[in-house]
Design brief:
The protein has about 400 residues and is of the alpha+beta class. It has 9 helices and 13 strands. It starts with 10 loop residues before the first helix and ends with a helix.
Length: about 400
């Protein structure tokens, strides 16, 4: 016969610990002004920037219109208009492996195209990346190409945030591998300045702030969008509705599968897990974005699965040991499931730990939130969900039973 651990003795102390942590989370939310919203939940300018030096610029002064197209293997200039019928001039990187050769060929073969080399001529053409500024239609304004040398040192996200701090509330997120030096930047806006002129000023202010710290011409914009305050607010509301709907569906399922006291216990347990994760996110100032929402929903599903397994064992133990008190049934059922719970959680944590160690950015935050949530899930299954069922049995079910007996 397995040893029975008296978990029920810790139900009340555990409840006070949980209330203290949740209270600290609520206090942190108030004192710190809410969540550290990521780029997914803030209205304003959304830009993808990459730190890469300038390579060369193109200026068109010839007849007709010239459009430049970039690919990983070549640069193509298409000329249309007066005295030109879709002339295609392709410059393959294999034929022109260095910038000095590439820019020299472009200037020699295209009359009216002015090419200004801004970097060392020995730089390889395959290192080029396209600028996202303006349109690929060439004109009197220089159209810039940038390059990124493989093995270039990564840019710290905190340095980017410090550089953009004078602009106000700015959210920064790493995109891809750190060696790519790409970031998502969102400049918060109240929604009262959704005009083209103001948006262009905001775009340029981001570039100017970064170039003041990292050097002139060291930043290229690869994408630029503007998200209105209405859409951002709608996204936040949908995230809240999603969380509430999840709790309601779990309550319905648990009520169908078990008695109401178990259903309420399951909902309290997953609500507890969500609030614990919220407290962790608030105090660590982790970015609250769609990845964080995904982590919370993942933990809710993981936690309720563990809770349902324990509840099923409680129901089975109650049938087998009819002479046991409900407290004894809880201790025996939890003890029987303890090995399964620990082993399952531990093996899952190993995978999540690997994800946390070998990833960066939002994926690392996702793994970190999962680790906290899994620990909270095991804790809530044992002490919160089961503790509620014991509370129901002692203080809600029994008084009602006595009142019914005395009334008869």
């Amino acid at each position: 016969m397995k040893r029975t651990v008296h978990f029920s003795r810790l139900f009340i102390p555990a409840a006070f610990v949980s209330l203290a942590v949740i209270g600290a989370g609520i206090a942190g939310y108030i004192l710190k002004g809410g969540f550290n919203l990521g780029v997914d939940f803030q209205a304003g300018l959304l830009q993808e920037v990459q730190f890469a030096p300038e390579a060369f610029s193109l200026t068109w002064k010839g007849r007709g219109n010239a459009v430049v197209n970039y690919s990983r293997t070549a640069i193509t200039v298409v000329i249309t208009g007066t005295e030109a019928q879709n002339e295609h001039h392709s410059f393959d990187f294999a034929a022109y492996p260095s910038l000095i050769e590439l820019t020299g060929a472009m200037a020699e073969q295209l009359e009216g195209l002015e090419v200004l080399l801004l970097a060392e001529g020995e730089i390889q053409s395959t290192w080029l990346i396209e600028s996202g500024q303006g349109t690929p239609l060439l004109g009197s304004e220089p159209y810039l190409f940038h390059y990124l040398k493989p093995g270039s040192p990564a840019i710290a996200i905190n340095d980017v945030r410090d550089a953009l701090a004078p602009l106000g509330t700015v959210a920064v997120q790493v995109l891809g591998e750190p060696s790519a030096r790409r970031f998502m930047v969102r400049l918060e806006d109240s929604g009262e300045t959704e005009t083209t002129e103001v948006q262009n000023e905001q775009r340029q202010s981001v570039v100017n702030a970064l170039e003041m710290v990292f050097g002139q011409g060291s930043v290229t914009i690869t994408r630029s969008d503007y998200v209105g305050s209405r859409f951002s607010k709608q996204l936040q509301e949908q995230a809240g509705i999603l969380m509430v709907l999840t709790l309601v569906l779990i309550l319905v399922y648990a009520s169908f599968r078990f008695k109401p006291q178990f259903a309420v216990g399951a909902v309290l347990a997953i609500a507890h897990d969500a609030l614990i994760m919220v407290a962790f996110i608030v105090w660590t100032r982790m970015e609250f974005n769609t990845t964080t929402i995904a982590a919370i929903l993942t933990i809710l599903g993981y936690s309720v699965n563990d809770t349902i397994v324990v509840f099923d064992r409680i129901r089975e133990t109650r049938r087998l040991y009819e002479s046991f008190s409900f407290r004894q049934v809880l201790d025996r059922a939890i003890s029987d499931c303890l090995g399964r719970t620990v082993i399952t959680t531990f093996t899952t944590m190993l995978a999540v730990c690997a994800l946390y160690i070998f990833t960066t950015g939002s994926m690392q935050d996702f793994a970190q939130a999962l680790l906290v949530g899994m620990f909270a899930g095991v804790y809530s299954t044992i002490f919160i969900a089961s503790g509620w069922t014991l509370f129901w049995d002692r203080f809600i079910k029994r008084p009602n039973t006595k009142m019914q007996v005395s009334g008869n």
